[in-house]
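Budget justification, computational time. The allocation requested in the original proposal was used primarily to generate structure tokens for proteins on the priority list. As evidence of use, we reproduce two of the resulting records. The first is shown immediately below.
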Amino acid sequence: MTGVELPEIVPLEMAEFRFADDEPLAGELGVVMAYVVRHRRGLLLFDTGFGFGNVALDAYYQPRARRLPEALAAAGFALADVGAVVNCHLHVDHAGQNACLPRVPIYVQPAEWQLAHTTDHTILEWIDFAGARYEQIAGDHDLFEGIRVLATPGHTGGHQSLAVETADGLHILAGQAVYTAGEWAGEPNAWEGRSRAADPGAYDRSIERLRELHPVRVFFGHDRRPWAA
């Protein structure tokens, strides 16, 4: 993008949903966030939000979701501007609108790709769509200047986050490596992700790894509020 010297991050609120009766936060409203990263070579999208049209999912979560083209337009962007996607993982609320972006490279961890095709947290038609172009990257990966994928397993075995060097320092797009700003800050509350992680030990190690980077700001997949140093 002309005039963008260092990457910039723009949040997109993609959905609200209600936690089901069999979940620890039963009845509470949750939020699903995605993020646009503007950089010298264009736009990178971190996650795509809930998909549409699955009766069972709609009954379970009662999502009030935004369509990706509309969310981008409200922030001043167009779907055609997106040149790359990073999914933190392939669950229905993070990769649900990947199909809006055929032929655009979508970066995922190989472990996550395998999990998506062997477990029931993904709706396959939302990720295995005509024109899908997945790029599997194992571990950490320098994606663009100032933008690095970080492997952060825990919530899932193939979870990943994004480190972005901005004008005011290092920003982390945590995805669901950390559930909320409160959890990142160590506040005791029910809005945490460790108890629901596939591997709680790996979840702890991934949080510690991100903290050791000393970011000045951290953004989350399920919290509107970023954490600021």
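The second record produced under the same allocation is shown here.
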Amino acid sequence: MRATGGVTVLEAVATLALLAFLLAVALPNLLPSPELEARVTAREVAADASLARQLAVSRGTTYLLEFRPPGRPYRSYTVRADGGPEEPGFPKDLPANVQVTGPEVIPFLPSGAAKLDSPQVEVIFTGGAAVATLRVLQATGYARVDPP
């Protein structure tokens, strides 16, 4: 007499093989790519540049967006008042598979402007084949990322 409620070995093996195949196909799409990390990191740093600008305006003192270590490659960044301690939540690490090039420090004045030697400064984030550029405008201190 045959049991009616069980699963045969063949059915179990077929189900496991199907699950393994689906996992093998889906897994590369679930892991973050260097290209995606470059764009996401650029947007996060842009948000923190805006934070530094807002703090400079609201507290009436110069704030810095500062990449570390001095020189390159940068491994982290921080926001702090000029001559002061880091703001809570900083420093923040940069992903190991994203290369960051640009100035070591971007100062934001109490007026909201960025203290730069040129009309704008660029910080380049490279991951895999993708490049995202953070641009900070001197006159306004406004930070934007291209491509959006």
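A brief technical remark on that second record: The chain has one domain: 34-146.
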